[in-house]
Amino acid sequence: MRVKCIVSYDGSQFNGYQVQPNKRTVQREIEEALTKLHKGNEVKIYASGRTDAGVHAKGQVFHFDTPLTIPDGRWPYALNSLLPDDIVIISAAYVQDDFHARFDVERKEYRYMINRNMMVDVFMRNYEYHYPFELNVDAMKRAADLLVGTHDFTSFCVAKTEVEDKIRTIYSIDINEENQQIIFSFIGNGFLYNMVRILVGTLLEIGQGKREILEIPGILEGKDRKLSGKTVPGHGLYLWKVYYDN
Amino acid sequence: MRVKCIVSYDGSQFNGYQVQPNKRTVQREIEEALTKLHKGNEVKIYASGRTDAGVHAKGQVFHFDTPLTIPDGRWPYALNSLLPDDIVIISAAYVQDDFHARFDVERKEYRYMINRNMMVDVFMRNYEYHYPFELNVDAMKRAADLLVGTHDFTSFCVAKTEVEDKIRTIYSIDINEENQQIIFSFIGNGFLYNMVRILVGTLLEIGQGKREILEIPGILEGKDRKLSGKTVPGHGLYLWKVYYDN
């Protein structure tokens, strides 16, 4: 039986999602909990994709196969009781055998949180990027509109990115301001390595007046990481939701 | 010169506020930072009161004396650069020599945060009490009204409390519900050891129908800790604001 799980995690204390030797990662913690639940028989999980060190997930998705017949609604409790408290399984459901958490992704939503107050909010220090500067939100929104659509995002990913096809579609970029918090929401069919963090970094430079809105088309066409803005820190980023076709 | 500071801290990683041998406490961290700033000359701080292990502060107040003449607005930055990231000095101001952060307190506000969602919010796990149960909020509000006023709160503090005078005045108790979060706000002229946590625990038992609203006067009159409800965990509690007479 194949089980699809939605999981949230606080990325602060992890070296990212993917298993690495001798490092605390989300995948390792979940696989260890599942293996314990299966009396030592190793269980592998397959997620929608990785997240980097410090990056959070509100709704990451993974699947695994199991011979156990625990009711859907009990899986989260069974797993959460074996998991550390910075990983919480939100829900679980039995799915068809051909469902794949990575290959079947239709869309992904990432959010990036910024706080512009003069002083850091101590309770949010690991959950938003403290950026106490003036920003022209309207200019950022207009620049964001130029990024929506199907483009080659070579300029907006880590230079050494190994994926060959760097064409991705961004369906929407929303920028919402509430009090001194700004929330960026990106929905796309896929995102390259560090892409959201470089997009936000570039938009912030436009918001600060360090770049012009109309530089965006040239940055995309130039296909060169050096043309875009700084990579903002991982702790403001959330894998918010993964969408599948059903 | 006497300086009054407002400080927020995340209590999760502290053994409370007050200095204890070989323990990480808020007072110790701040005194060490101040001593560093004063080139090794020891500086003592005086806060409005203690907070327990795990308890947070949004607006704790303390004062200290200094021969340094740093402008008010620079003190927070000077101190924050020497403090760990779970303590943030919000503001500082020079005050009269006879101001005392503890003796001059007029009122204090504490808040207690509860989340009733089925699943823990992983990002709030150290900042609210997860309590996924039905609650009659109206009953809790009516019981709270019976606690407001000047009473002997012996039944609502730790049995071994050494303070002799257990009469305190609660000016207001507000209970606000938003989505699945409930925020209790208490304003009073002073609070005994664990008093807010026992008050909330008792109100929750009323909200769950385990106790009657009209038990409150009898609990107060009985002056016995055994009569009141459970002590809720410290990680949902915030010293929110300290009020002085000026």
UniProtKB/TrEMBL annotation, chains A, B:
SUPFAM superfamilies assigned to the protein according to its UniProt record, in alphabetical order: Pseudouridine synthase (SSF55120)
Keywords: Isomerase, tRNA processing
Family: Belongs to the tRNA pseudouridine synthase TruA family.
The keyword NADP is assigned to this record: no
Organism name: Bacillus weihaiensis
GO molecular function: RNA binding; tRNA pseudouridine(38-40) synthase activity
Catalytic residues as annotated in Swiss-Prot or TrEMBL: 52 (nucleophile)
Protein name: tRNA pseudouridine synthase A
Assembly: Homodimer.
Domain Pseudouridine synthase I TruA alpha/beta: 6-104, 143-245
Role according to the record: Formation of pseudouridine at positions 38, 39 and 40 in the anticodon stem and loop of transfer RNAs.
UniProt xrefs under InterPro entries: PsdUridine_synth_cat_dom_sf, PsdUridine_synth_TruA, PsdUridine_synth_TruA_a/b_dom, PsdUridine_synth_TruA_C, TruA/RsuA/RluB/E/F_N
Protein's gene: truA
Keyword tRNA processing among UniProt keywords: yes
Enzyme's top EC category: isomerase
Record field: catalytic activity: uridine(38/39/40) in tRNA = pseudouridine(38/39/40) in tRNA
Binding site for substrate: 110
Enzyme Commission number(s): 5.4.99.12
Top-level taxon: Bacteria
GO process terms (BP): tRNA pseudouridine synthesis
